[in-house]
Amino acid sequence: MSKPRKNLCDWSKKELRERFAELTQIVAEPRFVCVKCGRAAACKAILCKPKTLLTASG
What we know:
Oligomer: single chain
Shape: globular
Radius of gyration: 12 Å
Strand order of the largest sheet: 2-1-3
Structural class: alpha+beta
Distance between the termini: 42 Å
Number of strands: 3
Number of helices: 2
Largest sheet: 3 strands, antiparallel
Order of helices and strands: HHEEE
Mean pLDDT: 87
């Protein structure tokens, strides 16, 4: 059984550096932002308190 995926919000500075390639994929074209820490991601499942970002078209 694999362990659950850790939220981006919980990544340490060290993890951000070590997993930079994965991070760039997660934050490419962000659609959600965490209202707890301000991190953004393309998928809301990786954030602990996600909120949809507004788009330029509305």
